[in-house]
Amino acid sequence: MAVNNAATQQQVDRAEVDATNGATVTMADGLGSRLGRLYLDALDGGGLPKTSALFSRVTQGLDTHDAAKGHYGYLRPYVRLGFVGDGGDVYESQDGSYSSLAGGGSYPSGHTYGGYEAGTVLATLLPELAPSILARTSEYGDNRIVLGFHYPLDVMDGRITGQATVAHRWADPDFQKLLMQAHTEIENVLLAQCEKEGYGDTLAACAGDPYDGLSTARDVDLCTRRLIYGFSRVGKAGQALRTPSDAAALLITAFPDLTTERRTEILEQTATDSGYPLDLTADGEASRQRINLAAAMAADVVVGADGSVTVTDFSDAMKASVADARAITVGGAAIDGFAPDVTTYVVDWPKDARIPAVSAVAAEPGARVKVTDGSPVLSSTGSRPTTRTITVTSPNGSVTRTCAVGFQHTSHAQRPVASGDGHGPGSAGGTGLWSPATEWTETRGLPWALITR
Predict the structure, then answer these.
(1) What are the CA-CA distances from residue 129 to residues 211, 348, 386 (Å)?
(2) pLDDT tens digits along 34-46
(3) Under 8 Å between Cβ of 297 and 127
């Protein structure tokens, strides 16, 4: 196994810098068979000076990934598997072997960082072609997994940090000025050449055969799947995205007439759901992992009378996973003390009265509500209270949440003094419905117990 010394690390660093620069050219594939060639000709011929300046300045003065690699020191997959020797032909390796890369850390992927930095810059310069460019960009990272040089988490973090770098730069007024100049330059130069070649007067018409034969929808799908690489959820679904403050700057060229707040809404409506690896939502922090830039840049947006925006061609993944209720009703009346995070309720009900119908109002349209008799949560130490279980299933069917409602029979409905909110029977305007069940305990002499799980 190669020794992780300074010389080896320098070789790895140089290789990844070369890869970052090479990614600028490699991403031309994402422009299409004809337009990609025109782009490279203009770039090589010096016809895109502002575009070239933009690419060269984005990562200046930044430690893009080296500090993280040194901190984690995680071995590459092929090293952990014992595949280290003189074999293999690795073009970015200084001596053409796997051995010279063995000393470089696996997490995060520097090549993926470079690819996503370059690909995201190009996508924001040419937002009309962004989904295709970003699909090509995702291949750049995915190939690191295929080669055995990186794990999916390495690649995911490379994407996150690469796009974070671009967002940070575009949110800087000085960089934003150069971005808009380069955006105008590259579109004008390419469109002029497209017309000269007889390819049409739009970039879409000029593009030619799309990258890998993918449609826009398939571009977005490919990018979306590679945001989480099939990992299982490790946190709670359906949590609202706290968007990084600079992330909306990535949509400046795609939606130039919208405010930062409205661009943020687009990012929120196209984001992936919460709870997957590298998502910081559960920690109460902004989460770049959930930003789905390909979907956001491809979004069809309707602006309402109040200025709010609605994405019409992509479903909101977060809302589709919400299995919360916004109200529980008993006999058509809303139960007192309802809160989405409370899962057990008790209603004080007259002993001889018929048990009323129980239902719930789902928090999101399309969610399904089912009410069944009995409950695994409420049990009794004496005469068992009548119980119902409410199950809410999210619109996408991936998340379910349950809550229990128990009816405590009394000779006459009277709310315990301990609740003290003035809404029980016998108080003005009272409904007779109350909760949560934590107010009922065996120490109050009631003939049942609450089981928490």
Answers:
(1) 11, 62, 60
(2) 999 999 999 999 9
(3) yes
